[in-house]
Each structure stands twice: as structure tokens, then as C-alpha cells.
């Protein structure tokens, strides 16, 4: 089908635009997806271009942003890279990896991106839209914009906001975050910078993250509607659930609310952290408090420490050494519990080698550096990466079926010069992860599987081993399903939005 000729036949798409980054677009789309699913519709999420190192891998091995994967879960469907046809993964120094339809096709600088990639980018967006509608003719697209739709220095090269809105003639919502302040200026300023034909697409305004009595904003609502001639279709209250952050900048704003946590976890906030959603299952454990470690300090206050994934492993390991955090981790390892995920596993090893300058090395001296040295592993980074869903079975700390993501480009092998460090495989597929026990107690472990903590049985047993050492009672692993918890969180989000959002005005 030629999409342009069929637009009058499809269900009206809904597009969520924001007055700024972090206004709440991702969660608004997630909520609308679940609301429409509950109404019997066939919603499908879409974001033409996303910039994020928080990634997901679909069943075909295609890489996409995790936020669109979460939105797909809200729709009750499997994520697909078509839902996020362009993914930009920042590597630092204004350089990003470019991913089209799930496959890495090169790197670019911010300066050259639109010159080299604008036309191919728009074509891949149109290709994805056509494919989605051909496979799902009765669907309704729920589209997420990016940042602000009126960045005037970039608007002529816009790939994911008003260009998509106009192409699909979508019903658009403008979301603004009242918590940031200046909500009236944000709304009026954004609308004033739109062309008349663009402004006509805005069918409603949402005031997000309102604290206190909603009735107190009634005068503000009337003023906005009188000034803009656009209805305020929702005033969404401040929600306290542990929803995934919009991007990595939100991580430091997340605070645990537990008065008496039984376990405390330290997660190292790497400069190039990737896949921070790996730790959402831990955020939702009722007995666990998480603290993000951003500078050198004693780690003895933590029951276990996590070294997360990295988009630039060499760069982040150099940061750990320079900041003193490598020494902190080594000292803690004498009797503490440490687990590294993907890049974190590599940094726990002895040697890191980057011959193709893929992982943040800038000079020949940085092509080969030492790791933290807690696992006898040498990693060499390759030119091409592997992205796939992986099935295996764990051996440690329990026997359990495992299904998670691999996003890596390496060869990791045993460093035979470190004979004093004895390691054992975590999984039957030995190359997916290793662990060793410390003489002073605790374990050092690392795995290439993103999302390992989503496996309820594995997560529960790992936590229980640490609880035993603290003489705490073990938790019942049968009652702690993260996927059920995630569904509950999405339902709660949708229910709250449904109470305060006039969704009928967008679909009728």
C-alpha cells in the first residue's frame, strides 16, 4: 500500500509532543497505550528517532530504545525495531552510533548528522510506518515526539516531531511539566513558535506532575484555554510509583523512599552508562535501597555493588581509575559482593583492548589498558557488535532458565597469567558470565546478559545469598515476579491517567 494514499482510511494517530525534554512524553504514551488496549483498540507505539543508550533487542535481534519496548509491553505486543526506526547511541565528544531498523550502520558527529543522515533517516521512518500499517491495518499509532517540537535551529531538519505529525495528520497533545515551573510560558511560547498549520494539529494540552489539590489550577486551566483556544484535556497529579526514568539524566533525581531498608545497593554512575533499566527490578524490591555512586568513597556501607553496562568501556574504565573508584572497588572486593553487567564485567577483568577505537580510546596508549583486575579475563573489542535475545540456564547461584539480551562486540577469554584468581561459569553457556568467591566472604561476578535481574528466581536467590550473610530471613522467590510488578505499574499509571485525561476527545 502507498501510505500517503491510504491515510484517510487509517485510525487517527495520537502524537504526544512536549514543551521540553523530560516533560513526561514517554510515560504519557505508555499510559495511553494501556488505556486504549483496555478499550479494545490495537495501539502500537512509535518514535521516529530516539537518542538513548538504554536499549532493547527485539526477537529479530534488532536494537531499539527501551522506552518504546516498554510502550509495546503496555500495548500487550512484542517490541519491534520498526517502532523506533532510528536510534542514536551517544558515544561522547558529540559522536553517536547510528542504528536504522535495529542495525548499526555507522557513526556520525552532531555537526554532520543532518547533512549525511537526514534523507536516509526520513526514508527509513516512512518505510517503518508503511510496514506497521501493512501488518496491522486496524491499529492506532501512539507516537512520541522528542525534546521540544520548536527548536528553531533544528526545525528544518526535524525527523521526529512536527514532520511526522504533519505526514500522518495526527491528533497531537502538548505535554508540559508544571513541576519545572513556568508552565504558562512553556505552553504559550511553544504554540507561538508553531506555524498555523502545525498549531491546528494540537488537539489538547496536558499539565503533568501537578502537586496538591487539582481544583487549585482551575483558574490556570481557564486562562490557558482562553489564551490558546485549545482545551486542557488533562491535569495529571504527581505519581509516586517507580516508573522508568525518561533518560539517564533522571537517574540522579531518583531517591529511595524506604525508612528501614534491609539491603543497600550501590550502583556506579558511569559517564557512559547504558541500559540503566537493568536495575528496575531492584528498584521495585520492597526491602532494597539503591544509591548511585558518583565519586570516590568507601563502599563498605553497601551490601552489594553493581558496575553497570557502558557504551564506552575504555573511557569509563579510565574514569574509574582517575576518580579513585577503581581503588574503592578493589578495597571493597576483599569481603564485599560485586556484580558487573556487560561493560561492567569487562572492567572487572584484567585487560581491555580496543584495536578499532570503538570503546572510547583516543590514543594508541589507550588502545590497551588494565581493568580493575578482580576477574582473570581479557577482553578485545571487535569492529562489529552482536545483538540478540539469548536463552540459557544458570548454574550459580541457582539452577534457572534464563532469557535476556546481549548487546556486545567482544572476545573475552581467560587471562592465564592470573592463576591465583579462580573463576567458575554462571551459566551453562560459559561465555555469558563468571564468578568467584572471595576469601574474606562475598563474591565477584559478571555477566553479558542485560536484564539478568528480571529473572525472578535468579534475582531472588542472588539476593537471598546476601541476606543469609546478614542473618536476614530469605524472601519467597515465588511472590516476587518483576514482570507481574511491571504490569501492575503500567496498570496503575494508566488508571491514574484515565482518571484525569479526556481520552475520548482524541479518538472520537
Task: Write structural notes for this entry.
The protein is an alpha/beta fold. The chain folds into two domains: 3-242, 3-Layer(aba) Sandwich (Rossmann fold), CATH 3.40.50; 255-485, 3-Layer(aba) Sandwich (Rossmann fold), CATH 3.40.50. Helix content is 30%, strand content 28%. It is built from 15 helices and 25 strands. The protein has helices at 3-6, 25-38, 66-75, 110-135, 162-168, 183-192, 196-199, 218-228, 280-283, 313-323, 325-332, 343-348, 456-469, 482-500, 504-507; strands at residues 14-18, 43-46, 49-51, 55-57, 63-65, 86-92, 95-100, 103-109, 140-144, 171-177, 202-210, 232-237, 263-268, 273-274, 288-293, 304-307, 309-310, 338-341, 351-353, 368-370, 377-394, 400-414, 424-425, 433-437, 443-447. The strands form six sheets. It has a seven-stranded mixed sheet. Strands 2-9-1-10-11-12 form a six-stranded parallel sheet, with helices on both faces. Strands 3-6-7-8 form a four-stranded mixed sheet, with helices on one face. Helix 2 (25-38) runs parallel beside helix 3, helix 2 crosses helix 14 (482-500) and helix 6 (183-192) packs parallel to helix 8 (218-228). The longest helix has 26 residues, at 110-135. The protein is globular. The model has no long low-confidence stretch (mean pLDDT 92).
Question: Can you give me a brief rundown of this structure?
Answer:
Helix content is 30%, strand content 28%. It has helices at 3-6, 25-38, 66-75, 110-135, 162-168, 183-192, 196-199, 218-228, 280-283, 313-323, 325-332, 343-348, 456-469, 482-500, 504-507, and strands at residues 14-18, 43-46, 49-51, 55-57, 63-65, 86-92, 95-100, 103-109, 140-144, 171-177, 202-210, 232-237, 263-268, 273-274, 288-293, 304-307, 309-310, 338-341, 351-353, 368-370, 377-394, 400-414, 424-425, 433-437, 443-447.
Amino acid at each position: 500500500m502507498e501510505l500517503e494514499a491510504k491515510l484517510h482510511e487509517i485510525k487517527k494517530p495520537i502524537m504526544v509532543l512536549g514543551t521540553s525534554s523530560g516533560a513526561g512524553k514517554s510515560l504519557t504514551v505508555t499510559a495511553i497505550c494501556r488505556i486504549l488496549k483496555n478499550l479494545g483498540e490495537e495501539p502500537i507505539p512509535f518514535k521516529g528517532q530516539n537518542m538513548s543508550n538504554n536499549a532493547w533487542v527485539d526477537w529479530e535481534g534488532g536494537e531499539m530504545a527501551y522506552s518504546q519496548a516498554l510502550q509495546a509491553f503496555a500495548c500487550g505486543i512484542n517490541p519491534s525495531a520498526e517502532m523506533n526506526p532510528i536510534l542514536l547511541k551517544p558515544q561522547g565528544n558529540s559522536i553517536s552510533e547510528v542504528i536504522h531498523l535495529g542495525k548499526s550502520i555507522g557513526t556520525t558527529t552532531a555537526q554532520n548528522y543532518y547533512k549525511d543522515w537526514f534523507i536516509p533517516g526520513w526514508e527509513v521512518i516512512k518505510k517503518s510506518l508503511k510496514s506497521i500499517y501493512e501488518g496491522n491495518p486496524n491499529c492506532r499509532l501512539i507516537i512520541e515526539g522528542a525534546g521540544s517540537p520548536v527548536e528553531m535551529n533544528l526545525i528544518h531538519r526535524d525527523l521526529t516531531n512536527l514532520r511526522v505529525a504533519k505526514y500522518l495528520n495526527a491528533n497531537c497533545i502538548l505535554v508540559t511539566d508544571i513541576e519545572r515551573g513556568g508552565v504558562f510560558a512553556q505552553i504559550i511560547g511553544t504554540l507561538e513558535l508553531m506555524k498555523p498549520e502545525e498549531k491546528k494539529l494540537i488537539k489538547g494540552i496536558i499539565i503533568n506532575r501537578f502537586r496538591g489539590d487539582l481544583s487549585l489550577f482551575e483558574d490556570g486551566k481557564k486562562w490557558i484555554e482562553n489564551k490558546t483556544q485549545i482545551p486542557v484535556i488533562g491535569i495529571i497529579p504527581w505519581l509516586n510509583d517507580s516508573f522508568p526514568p525518561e533518560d539517564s539524566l533522571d537517574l540522579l533525581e531518583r531517591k529511595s523512599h524506604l525508612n528501614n531498608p534491609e539491603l543497600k545497593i550501590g550502583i556506579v554512575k558511569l559517564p557512559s552508562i547504558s541500559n540503566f533499566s537493568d536495575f528496575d527490578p531492584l528498584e521495585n524490591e520492597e526491602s532494597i535501597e539503591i544509591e548511585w555512586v558518583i565519586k570516590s568513597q568507601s563502599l563498605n556501607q553497601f551490601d552489594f555493588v553493581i558496575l553497570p553496562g557502558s557504551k564506552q568501556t575504555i573511557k569509563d574504565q579510565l574514569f574509574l581509575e582517575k576518580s579513585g573508584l577503581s581503588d574503592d572497588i578493589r578495597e571493597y572486593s576483599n569481603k564485599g559482593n560485586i556484580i558487573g553487567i556487560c561493560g561492567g564485567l569487562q572492567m572487572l577483568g584484567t585487560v581491555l583492548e580496543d584495536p578499532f577505537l570503538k570503546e572510547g580510546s583516543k590514543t594508541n596508549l589507550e588502545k590497551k589498558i588494565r581493568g580493575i583486575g578482580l576477574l582473570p579475563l581479557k577482553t578485545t573489542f571487535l569492529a562489529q557488535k552482536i545483538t540478540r535475545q539469548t536463552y540459557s540456564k544458570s548454574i550459580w547461584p541457582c539452577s534457572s532458565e534464563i532469557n535476556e539480551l546481549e548487546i556486545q562486540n567482544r572476545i573475552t577469554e581467560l587471562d592465564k597469567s592470573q592463576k591465583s584468581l579462580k573463576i567458575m561459569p554462571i551459566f551453562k553457556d560459559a561465555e555469558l558470565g563468571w564468578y568467584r568467591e572471595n576469601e574474606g566472604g562475598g563474591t565477584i561476578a559478571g555477566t553479558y546478559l542485560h536484564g539478568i535481574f528480571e529473572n525472578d528466581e535468579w534475582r531472588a536467590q542472588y539476593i537471598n545469598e546476601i541476606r543469609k550473610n546478614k542473618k536476614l530471613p530469605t524472601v519467597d522467590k515465588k511472590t516476587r515476579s518483576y514482570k507481574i510488578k511491571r504490569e501492575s505499574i503500567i496498570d496503575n499509571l494508566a488508571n491514574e491517567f484515565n482518571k484525569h485525561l479526556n481520552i475520548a476527545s482524541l479518538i472520537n
